[in-house]
Design a protein that fits this description.
This protein is an alpha/beta fold. It is built from 15 helices and 18 strands. It has three domains: 142 residues, 3-Layer(aba) Sandwich (Rossmann fold); 120 residues, Rossmann fold, CATH 3.40.50.2300; 149 residues, Reverse transcriptase/Diguanylate cyclase domain (Alpha-Beta Plaits, 2-Layer Sandwich). A six-stranded mixed sheet has the order 1-8-7-9-10-11, with helices on both faces. Strands 3-2-4-5-6 form a five-stranded parallel sheet. Helix 6 links the parallel strand 7 and strand 8. Helix 8 runs parallel beside helix 9.
Amino acid sequence: MARNFRNKGNRGRRRNDGGAFKPNRDSDSPAGPGIENPVIFVSADGVLREDLVRLLRPYGYDLYSFSSIPEASRAMNSLHTLAIIVDMHPEERRHAMTIAGMKQEYNPPVPVVFLSDEDHFDARLEAVRFGADAYLKKPVSLNGIIRSLDGLLEDQHADPYRVLIADHDEARLDHHRRLFLGAGMEVDTITDPVVLLDAMAEFIPDLVLMELYFPTCLGMELAAMIRQEREFQSVPIIFHSEEQRLDRRLAAMSRGGDDFIYRPVPDDYLLASVRSRAERHRRLRKLMVTDGLTGLLDHTNARLWLEREAAQAERRGRPLSIALVDIDKFKTINDRYGHAAGDQVIKSLARLLKYRTRTSDEVARYGGEEFLVILRDSNSETTKGILDRICSDFSEIEHLYGEHKFRSTFSCGIATLTPPGYVPELLDAADQALYQAKGQGGNRVMITSA
């Protein structure tokens, strides 16, 4: 998530933000259905069009449906869309080039999902050649479509990579800073090694680009220092230097470096190396700290995140609220429809919480059917407004599992940190509010304070 950091006034440190792509979710307000994620859907099947329009709306996707590709193409001039879903059949294949053209109407090109009755090599190769980013075999489940759309849009709107540059050469540092900012990344720079760990803790980089020789120490010594901190052990470190001796370059790699780039190096090569390493780090870190079913933070990392946010909120004198969310009568869902259906409900609520909260918020799976939402710079009333809307939207979702159709609701307890406050007390207060919401029949949001 993009963050604004305080400059602590450390000597030799400069903060530089810029070039960041603004994600769909506004930083100050939650996304709303039918506004944030418009999608073009093309199908000759009128019943399928009506069903998808109705079923996807509670998930935040507003479908503009068309019966043919030419019809959708003509409408593209007046529509803004984040994705295109095409229900392919033999008659539509002659319009495949039109699909490729529709994809290129936007910069970056809009993702395209193909639905097809066919599942053989030639059909899939044709889809790739005409720009398909995802290919779903019919009959396709609602969850399958949602997962594809979520995945494509999440990749497209991922937060900018954060690069920390450590270099004593001001001119070289400024060149690299401008290079990465121009590529849409967030950049923090240091010239004084003394402030390195403070910069790491505040900026939380996806990658460190490190000069090998500083006037007072070696880059490899700084890398070893970084690796002593548990939370930074997996952050990629790329050394860059004119050092020609192989033994010294290998020594640097052995002290915590992930790569060594010999100067001079073309900007394109350096940029590609940084982007590749940062992307891999994010994907691996996500696997390490998230819950396997929902992709949200797990319980342990949620507590660590909350502790850090509470400390920052108290230092800055800003409000911090949390919401404990629990699915109502979840045992009944498992008993009546099976645990797989229960998992589907958990994933649906996880997705709704993730995409209807703000980019500054964090959502975690806190227990079996319980979630924790951490809302920075949000008082109780603002938090209640966000969760009330999500509560209403979730109650409208029609869950489909096999031949079964059913709805579900959740209860929520909200607490706001009041300095001097402590995380255990904050969680207890939210839990008490959740208990009260359950006691009043569920499907409601209640507030308390800590």
